[in-house]
Amino acid sequence: MNDAINAYEAIETAANIDTAFRLLQAASFDLVLGRELIWQPSLTAQRIFKTTPPSSLLELSQAFHHISPRLSAAPLKALIPGAQAKWRAESYDEASQTRLYDIIIERRMDNAKGEACFAGFIRDVTQDYQDVILEKARRTAQKEMGCVSPEDFKAQITLLTQLAPEHCPQAAILTVQLCRLDRLYAHYGIVTVDHIGREVLRRLIAFLPQSLAMMQQDDGVKCLLADASQIDVNSLSKAVTSFPVTTPQGIVSIDLDVSLNLLNAPQAQQIVLPLADKKKDALPNITEDDIIALLNQRSLSLALQPICEASNGELHHYEALLRIDDPFKGPQSAWRHIIAAEEYGLIHLLDHRALERAALLMIRYPHIHIALNISAGTVGDIEKQDDYLRQLDAFPALHERLTVEMTETMALEQPELVAQFAERLQMRGCRLSIDDFGAGHTSFNLLMSTEARQIKLDGSLIDGICCSVSQQNFVRLMVDFAATFNVVLVAERVETAEERLLLASLGVDYLQGYYLGRPISEHDFSGQAPKTAFI
After folding, report:
1. What is the CATH number of the domain that holds 168?
2. 358 with 386, same domain?
């Protein structure tokens, strides 16, 4: 009870009220007809109007491109004390996107002078309507992929259950569920979990074209099967879990529970198949010896992805990505081996090999600048830091052409070691970049403590940015922040001309993504940047 009282008292403070209104993107005001509007909190009102807030009822009505119904003193005077009236307003932001607002005003008791008194608030509801639109789009996409509503799925189960004893004794419901859903939501957020769910659905559709119906749920997918005997559950499990999902938050291995329940069998005879441990699924047949063999056989190489100026598409530098040289398939993604190396405590050896390959490329091509990722296994151990920096010291002429990228999450988990490593890097003239910035753990204090010279915005902030005002506002905030602290801003995962144009107009410095160029194997690299057909 005491905790509840303390919480109630805390929320009554001005600071918490200001925070609440800011999170709601709302500002309240008091009004006495014929007098000036009094805004509380004024800073939130300034954010909404992008300028000094209106000082009168007339100015408030004129602050929007459209408002309905007409906002004037007459309808307010008609209200009785305690009654409320609502207006819908529209305006345009700097990117010419429509923004929607709700204005709600309540009549209060007249003051001692007999003047009509009111209180109200204005709230930006653009995102609420965008969320509704996105949810409709999600349901449409599920329908196009063959999913049915819960009601239709239940009706089909009822029908098939009646037919099962005589006509289809192997009819079954296949249930595929994401494990540790609460942990996924807490770590990755609702957008990424939704992304994982859609990918699981796509894989099931590819594997189960004969399913009668599918229904997507928050935690997975249910499939209705007429003949479960035709399903190889082990093959299905491999098809769904043998490779990870690429999400806006990075690569995520899938951990699922799968059950196959016969409609014509008692509950005790249900077939249940829990999948193997996620780490084992994610790392089939990769041993410590495999990692060592890759290093001994010098089978690791780099692929270079261009990072270009947002304004004109000119090359600025390359990000180096680790690849495995397969003698038959050519360079392949190294993600499985990277995960395995982390598990076996060998990831620092891959960092050394990547630095070696990057140094050789910079020696061969004296005009290029390379950004190289580094792992928590190297930064989080002072002895491994020393080893890495000793290797770096063997190439002193290359220091000013090297940027070292570490993830934001790594920096937050090991702030002291990261700050120490950052200082040692910068003493040598290397640049430090914070990767995946804004992925959900953003800390401006972190950025300032490491004195990083570059921020790489997480790709989740760029996906769909042309349709998301909130994402545009965040990028705009980051542009202002970068300008204040003299930090270079890079946007990842830029895949369309529209995204390039928007990000350039917002003031982002550099862009990376398939629109600018795909990664080029070092074996095919000629030292020349690809031409980008900017429009």
Report:
1. 3.30.70.270
2. yes
For residues 354 and 410, state if they share a domain.
yes
Provide the residue count of the chain: 535
Are both 484 and 510 inside the same structural domain? yes
128: three-class secondary structure by DSSP: helix
Residue of higher predicted confidence among 252 and 404: 404
The whole-angstrom separation of Cα 516 and Cα 319 is: 12
Could you tell me if 342 and 462 lie in one domain?
A: yes
User: How would you list the strands of the sheet with 256-262, edge to edge?
Assistant: 213-217, 220-225, 172-178, 256-262, 271-274
In contact, 60 and 51? CB cutoff 8 Å: no
Between the ranges 279-288, 302-311, 376-385, where is the mean pLDDT highest?
A: 302-311
Distance of CA 133 to the CA centre of its chain: 19
Percent of the chain past pLDDT 70, that is, above it, reads 75
Indicate if the pLDDT at residue 37 is higher than 70: yes
pLDDT at residue 274 is higher than 50: no
pLDDT at 136: 56
For CA atoms 450, 317, 319, 401, give the dihedral sign: negative
Where in the sequence is the domain holding 84, given as residue range(s)? 2-124
For the CA atoms of the chain, what is the radius of gyration? 29
**How many domains in the chain?**
3
254 is written with which tokens? 């899938």
Give how far Cα 324 sits from Cα of 207, 241, 285, 358, 525, Å: 29, 22, 16, 15, 16
257 lies in the same domain as 305: no
Angle at 531 between CA 525 and CA 532, to 5 degrees: 125
131, two tokens: 């969320």
User: Does 432 reside within a domain?
Assistant: yes
Alpha carbon distance, N-terminus to C-terminus of the chain? 62
pLDDT score for 186: 65
Matching residue, tokens 């002193």: 396
